[in-house]
Specification:
single chain; 278 residues; alpha/beta; 434 Repressor (Amino-terminal Domain); 2 domains; 12 helices; DUF5753; DNA binding; Transcriptional regulator
């Protein structure tokens, strides 16, 4: 039987296939045996192993169940997300997987509206700016916009997460996409604040030194009540799970919420700005 040599370094998809083959061979399984365990045809397994067919989320999760990798840090699903979101910042796909099952989400953002609250038009303008700078392809821009829509599905799942958002005033004052796009985006923020599972504050410029964060920060409370923080540098995103590091950030977030204007006052500020640009 001919055996195609794999070159894992040639692409993330090839690396996925090579890992699938090595995991299978380490257990002494044939492609037929692995296919039966995973619920796929041997032809499908062969195509993924050799990089002729890209893996899917369903395929990756099936591989994790078959190889006993569910709940670990090195799953096939994680590798699939890195393939799919290759244009995204390193570390962000892993964060998204945790965000999708969080019981509570706390956001502080500077400069732009966070993805969970963006309208499709606002998200498209931002993605398009990356294309014009040559940072990503048009296809990758479409993927980014689609990912935002997928993430926003967490707002309506049952039960929905509690979502706390504090926006630096720059988020609502920075014009993105012209009056029509920005006006619709501000209207979306007002709608968001009316949801039963959300709290929205705007941290005004005159908070000055009372603002505890200079950069965006995200805090997740997972279903088991464990905490996780996420922050980004120019090179990558970083997830922090150590409570000794995360708890002080949570404390500072609560202080930020306490010092910021109430949700009613924040919504009034957004509404005044929206009327001014319409």
């Amino acid at each position: 039987m001919n055996r195609k040599e794999l070159v894992p370094e040639s692409s993330p998809q090839a690396a996925f296939g090579a890992r699938l083959r090595s995991s299978r061979e380490a257990r002494g399984w044939t492609q037929d045996e692995l296919a039966e365990r995973m619920g796929y045809s041997s032809t499908h397994v062969s195509a993924v192993e050799t990089g002729r067919k890209p893996p899917t989320l369903r395929f990756s999760r099936s591989a994790d169940r078959t190889f006993g990798l569910e709940g670990t840090m090195d799953t096939f699903e994680r590798e699939w997300r890195e393939i799919r979101h290759g244009s995204l910042l390193e570390g962000f796909p892993e964060y998204v997987s945790h965000e999708g099952r969080a019981a509570e989400i706390r956001l502080y953002e500077v400069g732009i509206i966070p993805g969970l609250l963006q309208t499709p038009e606002y998200a498209s303008v931002l993605a398009g700016s990356y294309v014009r700078r040559g940072a990503i392809t048009p296809e990758q821009a479409d993927e980014r916009v689609s990912l935002i829509a997928e993430r926003q599905a967490t707002l309506v799942r049952t039960p929905p997460p509690l979502i706390f958002v504090v926006l630096d005033e720059s988020c609502i004052r920075r014009p993105i996409g012209g009056h029509t796009v920005m006006g619709a985006q501000l209207a979306r923020l007002i709608e968001f604040a009316e949801l039963p599972n959300t709290v929205l504050h705007v941290a005004p410029f005159d908070m000055g030194e009372r603002r505890p964060f200079d950069l965006p920060i995200t805090l997740l409370t997972l279903p088991d009540r464990s905490l996780m923080s996420y922050a980004e540098s120019a090179q990558r995103g970083h997830l922090e799970r150590e409570s000794t590091s995360v708890v002080p950030i949570l404390t500072a977030y609560h202080q930020l919420q306490a010092d910021a204007p109430s949700q009613a006052a924040s919504v009034a500020m957004i509404n005044d700005l929206r009327k001014g640009i319409s």
